Amino acid sequence: MKKIFYYFNIWILMSRNSFMSYLSNKLVISIFLIGKILRFIFFFAFIYFLISKTKNLAGYNLNQTIFFFLTFNLVDITTQFFFREAYKFRQLLVTGDFDLMLIKPVNVLFRVLMGGADLLDFITIPAIFIAVVIYGKFLEPSFFQILIYILLMINAFIIAASFHIIILAFGILTLEVDNTIMIYRDLMSLGKFPVDIYLKPLKEILTFLIPVGLIATLPSKALMGLLTTRVVLFSFFIGFFLIFVSLKFWAFALRKYSSASS
Amino acid sequence: MKKYLTVFKISFAQEFAYPINLIFWRIRNIFQIILLYFLWSSVFENTSGEIFGYSKEKILTYIFGIIVLKAFVFSTKTNDIAGDISRGDLVNYLLKPISYFKYWFSRDIASKSLNLVFSFFEITILFLVLKPQVYIQKDLLDLCIFLFFLLLAVFLFFLILMLTNLITFWAPEAGWSSQFLIIIILSEFFSGAVFPIDILPQFLQRYIYLTPFPYLIFIPLQVYLGKVETLVLYKSILVSFFWIGILIILLKLMWQKGLKRFEGAGR
């Protein structure tokens, strides 16, 4: 418990520094914020006008499709809020500054993964959260469905964390971080819509092999009462398995690390 | 002309200096197309008719058309200008006996050529895997008008991107953020690179058609699909030329004013 508080305090400190760094340039942050909000609105409008006309998408009505989209955004933005520092990892590796982190009395993975919370996402998360609650109410879920939804969202977050850890470990071994992280994000963006729109075997690949479906689609389906207990348990197993594998891979990569400049 | 041909050749060769970046960039484009392809296939799953005036054949052609047009119109090197201005590297170019605009346009053409080649490979692979029904335009006149609009789109995008980069003269720190807003968000959505503009309500479409963005992707693809009436065609040409004219004037103005403001910091 003491250790959790220790790391929580460090995270607050690092996040405060990160926010202050963002706020030092208000013009840039305002432009990025406007861009992010517009992108969300445009995509939302696209879904709204499309499904208003066609009445359904892969068997889902307008409210359900919007809920899939909102859930995807909630996971995506929350992940970026916590793990934004991962985007700067390559710079640490090529300059050798990663060495300085290794000697500090803080878990190095925690530092490179969560060392700089994103202020822009911090601003947008509440709005997305409120939208998820509003559209979730339209689906009239039971208490149990809401509970499974929350648990699967936590699982989605763990899976997303695993992928970020794998990308960082891969970065240590190959110095390639920026492209892999963007590929990861593009893959995740396939979950903007329910994975049911994809044909077999792509649907299975996106559900189980590259678990985009587990991150974005399954929580929403749970809230709609469309999941069997077997699938829910399997998705928790995948979450556990991935975090285990990613931590092992990180430990392996760390042993192979050879400093760049020192 | 010869020196710009040399710039083209060097720039083309430079693209291969970081092949991984190029390959990853192309893979990213494929993911976006896969999402749109399956989304629209799903929309047409239970209907054999038209939706928003598109048959399944035409909408899938539109999706595949996005790959080619994005490779041709949106591929660019000009986005490096913001960095040149903020770092003061612009000085190096000002001292050389070349036109700064022609230099970057030559580099853009090199980037477009390479991306276009890649896009044809991607389309071939996607065709073999997905086997979509597509619409082949056989009317030679429509094809010529399509190519004409494509050239206008290249000029328009170059001007928009140039102007966006020149903002850095006044706000050196806002180079990437202004490109994010104007190029990645506004250009992509309003050009029809994410979805066809005509699925939006009429009143929204009317405003969007007044901007230069639909003439980058949407209108050329509409011409290819044979969906543009003669009157709209003339109107589109007029609006495109209007914007090219306005943007050239703005570019000259911003360039002159910007250079006066430029300090070449650190040089």
TrEMBL record, chain A:
| Species of provenance | Candidatus Woesebacteria bacterium RBG_13_34_9
Q: Which residues cross the membrane?
A: 27-51, 66-87, 108-134, 146-175, 205-227, 233-254
Keyword Secreted in record? no
Q: Does the keyword Aminoacyl-tRNA synthetase apply?
A: no
Listed A to Z, the keywords are: Membrane, Transmembrane, Transmembrane helix
Query: What name has this protein been given in UniProt?
Result: ABC transporter permease
Automatic annotation (TrEMBL), chain B:
Keyword check for Membrane, yes or no: yes
**Superkingdom, natural source:** Bacteria
UniProt KW keywords: Membrane, Transmembrane, Transmembrane helix
A Pfam family matched in the record: ABC2_membrane_6
Tell me if Membrane is a UniProt keyword of this record. yes
Q: Which positions, given as ranges, span the membrane? A: 20-39, 59-76, 113-131, 143-170, 176-195, 207-225, 231-251
| Protein name per UniProt | ABC transporter permease
